[in-house]
Amino acid sequence: MTTKNADAIVVGAGWAGSILAKELTEAGLKVVMLERGPDRATAVEGAYPDSIDELRGAIRHRLFQDLSRTTVTIRNKIGQTALPYRQLSAFLPGEGVGGAGLHWSGVHFRAAPDDLALRSNVIARYGQKFIPEGMNLQDYGVTYDELEPFFDKAEKVFGTSGEAYKINGKVVGNGNVFAPSRSDDFPLPPLKDVYTANLFRKAASDAGYHPYSLPAANASRQYTNPYGAQMGPCNFCGYCSGYDCYMYSKASPNVNILPVLRKDPNFTLITRAHVMRVDLDSTKTRATGVTYLDLDSNKEVTITADLVVLGAFQFHNVHLMLLSGIGKPYDAQKNEGVVGRNFVYQTITTSRAWLPENQFTNQFIGTGGGGVAIDDFNSMNFDHGPHGFVGGSPVWVNQAGVKPIAASTIGGGKDAPRWGAGYKKALVETYRHAMAIDAHGSNMAYRDVFLDLDPTWKNTYGQPLLRMTFDWQDNDIRMNRYVVSQIEPIMKALGATKYELGMLEPGKPFDTRLYQTTHLGGGAVMGDDPNTSAINRYLQSWDVPNVFVIGSNAFPQGMGYNPTGMVAALAYWSAHHIRTTYLKSPGPLVRV
Amino acid sequence: MALAGTAAFWTADEFADWRQAIAAEAAQTYTPRYFTPDEWRFLEAATEQLFPEDETGPGAKALGVVDFIDRQMDTSYGHGGLWFMSGPFQSGPANLGYQLPYAPREIYRIGIAGADRYCRDHYGHAFADLDHPTQIEALTAFEKLPIQFDETLPAGIFFEQLRTNTMEGAFSDPIHGGNRHLGGWVMLGFPGARADFMDWVDQYGPAYPLGSVSISGETA
After folding, report:
1. Number of C-alpha atoms within 13 angstroms, CB side, residue A37?
2. Please, what sign has the CA dihedral across residues A509, A512, A516, A519?
3. What's the predicted TM-score (pTM) here?
4. Residue A89: its chain B contacts at CB < 8 A?
């Protein structure tokens, strides 16, 4: 065992970790960032044409978590034996420098203000009884107005393309009429609509909805961000989701932050460093540093530091807290404890329209964050009263570029054969003439949906795996089915020759074999009450105040929007308060 | 040069080198590395039923799908290196995913033997020697009926492995040994490694006009 020293340790080299490392080095701290995967640079692994190999990329998971070393176990309900998630399928965490921020798509939202105080808003509008039994509906403890400067900062760092609706209270453009006011415009204009997005824009408008361009961290023009990092214009190559962008157009920690950070003498990046635990002193209220396994030498190394930032993927942060004894583990039977509580996901289903034979949808053309959406059924933008569910879904065409192996898996529609001549015929027709419309919905938190340590399975380092207890709940199934039914007028306005609405089916359990989304959340949520949140409104552990936990683990429930924009804003928000308050007087930033 | 399909291929740093190596290898007559002659016969017949030559486009044989699968058996994927393969192994409901101790190459070894045994028992011949309607009947049974091979491998698991790898072989870049002469992509209308559509983003309605190109520069 060797020991090193730092002022601050950051665990994980994705967006959360890279933002915190940048901010803390700017504050003059000596920062060590630990990443268990390999180093990755766009100039090497992202280089065209090797980077656009679908088999090695999205199919064999070149940039994703190495499950052979560690995974999670999953079950649908308490009392069932959770089994290991042995093959990447339902969700795809990243690994290596850049994390999931290297292989993400690029959809870059601000949070809907109503979502940040969802419990208060639902009670104010519909009364306490509207919240179903067993739902742990909570507020974030932070408002949109407080976060606005940090949403703005993140967009400027990411080079986000989009169209504003309101700036400083004045209507300025054709953006999302449901979006809150902004202090400044998007740094780049919106991306062009691909054909299917343009069809959706017109059809949604004809159906009486309010279409807008998706905010995308895929640069619509050449761009230099405030750090001096440069991005190239997106050429719609279609290799965003699952790939590193060879055009330097999709924002990633590797392109937008790390080139600058790597040059800072106060910054040290250690890769192939698997963090085993955060080390605590005998009072269990102070972290002394972390211990990691050097995957090359197979030896444990301890680093001491005054400040520890967990910036790994959502469930890895929760796992590390449980392994380290930071905060009280959640007990579902008693509904007590906070670490593992409010584990959430998103409720996403895809519907499909087929166009006439003379209309080619060219689905291989695309960009990960681009497209056209409506928010008419998201957040609190519609009256939930008659429906009796909490939550909502944006609906969109987000044609990220459909590659052939993925297309062969999707196949030719619900009733098409899965193989043989009939399969081929339907596949070709679908690839050439179909388009997808997603309902990208929220997922609420429930008393019996949570994370804890598995009693049986261990990773290759001998540590218990994290156990997920998750199933779809009635509230979210009904939300999904209602919103998807509202897509029908769009299908008719599109001139589809046929269409299929994709909905969750009541009674059908969560299926780990089907890709749904990597937007996992919660498990160590932020809030104002230490009895229902693991971290305070500044993402600081209530129990170990020199540990900050940054990521979508902080979300009390799964929102309809993609999480990365919110994660980045929370990272800058937390970093701001560490820099302006915590470093001057280390200790709890919130006293109860 | 025997790099294609090996574990080294997946970790090679010298990208230009392996690309060239594989392109050169793909042009040569392929010698099976993993599958036995009997297994090869099964795979050629079965993949051609899953992905037949017809008026829509080329079939598995013309596309080199079995070459592709054989190469994959030698990769980290084929050896189970991309999956969590630590025990204990315990069965559970299907929706909790794959729980067997077998890597893809073992699924094929057990599965093909089991499939041929099933065909001999039910139809009197190995799969490859059955007429086409009977082959389709057998594959449908593997896909849908609760058959166990070697008492440990559900036929459905084997079928899905074969179906998945067949489609991968038809539609992955030709550097991996399948999609020969870009036949799978041409059939679909996928332009391959062009990966630059700046000038076609807002051309609304017509088919993209340029043909397919592979990572190694082959065109169709």
Report:
1. 25
2. positive
3. 0.96
4. 97
